[in-house]
Specification:
Homodimer. It is found in: Peroxisome. Its EC number is 1.1.1.37. The chain is α/β, with parallel strands linked by helices and about 350 residues long. It has helices at about 1-15, 25-35, 55-65, 80-85, 105-110, 130-150, 160-175, 190-205, 240-250, 250-260, 265-285, 330-354, and strands spanning about 45-50, 70-75, 95-100, 115, 155, 185, 215, 225, 290-295, 305-315, 315-320. Residues about 15-40 have low confidence and may be disordered. The structure holds 1,4-dihydronicotinamide adenine dinucleotide and oxaloacetate ion. The site of oxaloacetate ion has 12 residues, from helix 10.
């Protein structure tokens, strides 16, 4: 019996490779299903926008994550190539590729975690809000697919402007009757990653030892590093506070300008997204004490969405931590952040509710 099963598994694997790597037919699915049965236990993760500047290195990093058993790579272009490439890595996750809107539902069905880096990036001179026109519609249609095919999945939203795309996603889920605020997380990890790096440089220590809470949102003055709450405990001069706050707030623009028209942060963003996704998966597994900053539905301020530290658990963002004591400088920055955030959130909400 066992020998027969093993023989048919091998034949299925071989015959799947006789077909061109077309993503239209069922040959790919047959091959994947065959391998999935023997796959490692773990979570099912989809990346939407997997062939992009962020999507490709993120696909690589998620294929390396031992908590991932199945990895679905979806894009409107080039996903077959990225899938073939990543699928040759000898790690546990089974990789399947999906191309174009007709395959979105198959890409999403059964997923535990959906990561969304789909959408256009900035060029020099643009703000993140300039991306709204195109990215709002992309996020809306992808979230409609999530509501239909995997309404219980955790969603990690990367597409900019995050301050507006997270409210868009929330409205789509509300309309579909599937909204669970705990499961919708805007990814602001890159702000924390940058803050840790820049603070470590100033302090002359290893960035892996530094933890800077970054609150507010993910654009310009809405990005607020709380330098009074850095771990390990330390103090900064007012010049250092100005320098660090500005550098973290403009980290994205620094990369956009350095890339000179070739896009925005992709590699550091893939690193940050993989770090955040791993934290979400460890939370889903039931690990205790998983805390990350994220832009979520929140009652920490009067705004409906705000980034603060959240505790990640089996159902997503299970606890949202308050801001903690702020300095006068931070209180003034918070007021500016809230003013800009309010407009960006409203813009996202009215895009869906218009
Ligand atoms: N949250 C954050 O901290 C950060 C967010 N971003 C944002 O991430 C987004 C992606 O950036 P990059 O990867 O550099 O851009 P990219 O242009 O290199 O890749 C985007 C990918 O999305 C795909 N795409 C477009 N429409 C799609 C749809 N309807 N369904 C699925 N895929 C679709 C494209 O085909 C492309 O492969 C941008 O909006 C960017 O601003 C970038 C860096 C940091
Ligand atoms: O700056 C951009 O456009 C991309 C981004 O969000 C970042 O790098 O933080």
């Amino acid at each position: 019996m066992e020998q027969n099963a093993e023989a048919s598994r091998r034949i299925a694997t071989l015959s799947a490779h006789l077909y061109p790597p077309s993503f239209q037919g069922s040959s790919l699915l047959r091959r994947s299903n065959c391998r999935a049965k023997g796959g490692a236990p773990g979570f099912k993760v989809a990346i939407l926008g997997a062939a992009g500047g962020i999507g490709q290195p993120l696909s690589l990093l998620m294929k390396m994550n031992p908590l991932v058993s199945v990895l679905h790579l979806y894009d409107v272009v080039n996903s077959p190539g990225v899938t073939a490439d990543v699928s040759h890595m000898d790690t546990g996750a089974v990789v399947r590729g999906f191309l174009g809107a007709k395959q979105l539902e198959n890409a999403l069905t059964g997923m535990d975690l959906v990561i969304i880096p789909a959408g256009i990036p900035r060029k020099p001179g643009m703000t993140r809000d300039d991306l709204f026109k195109i990215n709002a519609g992309i996020v809306q249609s992808l979230c409609e697919g999530i509501a239909k095919c995997c309404p219980g999945a955790i969603v990690n939203l990367i597409s900019n402007p995050v301050n507006s795309t997270v409210p868009i996603a929330a409205e789509v889920f509300k309309k579909a009757g599937t909204y669970d605020p705990k499961r919708l997380l805007g990814v602001t990890t890159l702000d924390v990653v940058r803050a840790n790096t820049f603070v470590a440089e100033v302090l002359g220590i290893d960035p892996r030892e530094v933890d800077v809470p970054v609150v507010g949102g993910h654009s310009g003055v809405t990005i607020l590093p709380l330098l009074s709450q850095v771990k390990p405990a330390c103090s900064f001069t007012s010049e250092e506070i100005d320098y660090l706050t500005n550098r973290v707030q403009n980290g994205g623009t620094e990369v956009v300008e350095a890339k000179a028209g070739a896009g925005s942060a992709t590699l550091s963003m893939a690193f940050a997204a993989a770090k955040f996704a791993d934290a979400c998966l460890r939370g889903l597994r039931g690990d205790a004490g998983i805390v990350e900053c994220s832009f979520v539905a929140s009652q920490v301020t009067e705004l409906p969405f705000f980034a603060t530290k959240v505790r990640l658990g089996r159902s997503g963002a299970e606890e949202i931590f308050p801001l903690g004591p702020l300095t006068e400088y931070e209180r003034a920055s918070l007021a500016k952040a809230k003013q800009e955030l309010a407009g960006s959130i409203e813009k996202g909400v009215s895009f869906v509710c218009k």
